[in-house]
Amino acid sequence: MVENRSYADIAYINGYIYTADNTNTVCEAIAVTDGYIIATGSTAQIQKLITEHTQIFDLHGKTMLPGIIDAHLHPFWGGMQLSGCHLDYASLTIAQTLDKIQHYLDNDPCKGANDWLQVRGWLRQEVLPLGTDITRADLDQLNTRRPVILFSNDCHTLVANTRALEMFGLNRHTPEPKDGKIGRTADGELNGILEDAPAMRAFDSIPALNAEQAIEVAKRVQFELNQQGVTTAMDARAADLQFNAFKTLADDNNLTIRLFGAIEITPDDAPTIQDIPKAVKEAKLFAQTYSDSQWLPKPGLKISLVKFFIDGVLQAPIMTASLLEPYRINQGTANNIDYVASDRVGDLYYDNTILENLIIEVSKAGFYPHMHTVGEGAIETVLNHIESLRTKHPELAHIRPSLAHNELAAPSHYARFAQLNTIATLSFQWAGPTNEMIDQFHHMLGEQRFKELEPSAKFIDAGAKIAFGSDWPIDPLNEWFDFKVAVTRIGAGNNAQRLATDRNLTVTEVIRAATIDAAFMLGQEQTIGSIEVGKFADLIIIDRNPFTISPEEIEHVNVINTIIGGRLVYQQNEKV
């Protein structure tokens, strides 16, 4: 029970403590010393470790879990979105959208011709009527001289007004990129719509926050995460701006989140085989700059993954996720639909040979490859490359590749994840699309493929591990709503349909995916992810027991305390 420690600095007693260990043990009490868990057991057992110096917390039957590990999100983008012009993820017409933006412009103190207006909380696929696109011509109707962009919350579409396109340096002579699209009208003029990598590059080129502003965003981010019970997060597109800010917080002992990062290698970073060593070297330099040399109970930073953006997104009208067979499109009208096979199968952004070599070389460098794969075509491509990695380099068996999103798999894929020791990183809330989106997917994919939409339990049933990643701010940050969707496959709204393409996850499966299995994905299951002797004391106390309440009630769970390395970093008004 005890590892070389004779007393506890902190003791939690009389609780319902789910440990997430290999046997899903539930205990009553734990002891913590120097930020480590030194004992678990009954209250009577832990009381033997209590002295006059021990701080005792009586849980009075409350539930304690390991801290939540969010294994794929974009926290800094999420923090930036918490202020400024925001459309609140609403389904709006073009006129309603322009009215909201104009109202913000009229009241914004920034009036300069070069003051960017970034509009967030916008969902391209939810513009009404569905299938409608907002273009440069629409944004040019706004009464402003400023550059204005709409940045879709899936981060795959950016719409720019004429002023913004000029400042991006884009015009009708700009060549088509390899990893996305630049929208054009019939006469070749730009329509203002940028898709996939061109959208992200344009967004990244907008003048960044200064260091002090970035630190304030980082503080807000970690508070929002801690409030949700998140103790560890993996930034799926790490960059200097945010990691400089979080490193400053760490140096000042103000960091309250364990922050992992995936540094992206784009097709432009390695256009040929000969460019791969340079791209890997730059990734290693970034990791050396921002990774702590020691991993301790005190929160720190670690860059241990490399990100590859393999394909786009599934939703119409973008349809850039890579499929094995063509998308179906409506050749009729909204009232008289007629879906037929198109010639569109989506996009794969990397040359196959280059991608295989990239995956192998980053693995040799010690990184875990982390791939954005939405469609079955992208999943199949990457699984083939991972099979090559496993076959050609058995010495790299310890490398843990992960595929993020996996919204549309093929039936053969689930077993391959297990066979190739590859983790499926899933955003559980995506299993609860709106009724309108369910209908659209059904038509767009056809009956047979629709059955594989938003799988989760199918991976587990095939023997594969899954890890939870909220993908915030693609959706609002609401971890417990996401968990509710995982155990019901029903989204928001009183009339929401259940997405009946997979079984519901159990509460145990959900909690493990957001704790110990997410830790496994990050290679950290020896230090975090469960409440076991020798691990860091990353803990949360919640106001109700998710194992005993109704599945629908899980979204109403409130976090009372968040503890990282034994230190309290968040406390709700209610006290333990």
UniProtKB/TrEMBL annotation:
CDD domains in the cross-refs: YtcJ_like
Record-linked Pfam families: Amidohydro_3 (PF07969)
Residue span(s) of domain Amidohydrolase: 55-570
PANTHER family, A to Z: IMIDAZOLONEPROPIONASE (PTHR22642), PROTEIN LONG AFTER FAR-RED 3 (PTHR22642:SF2)
Protein known as: Amidohydrolase
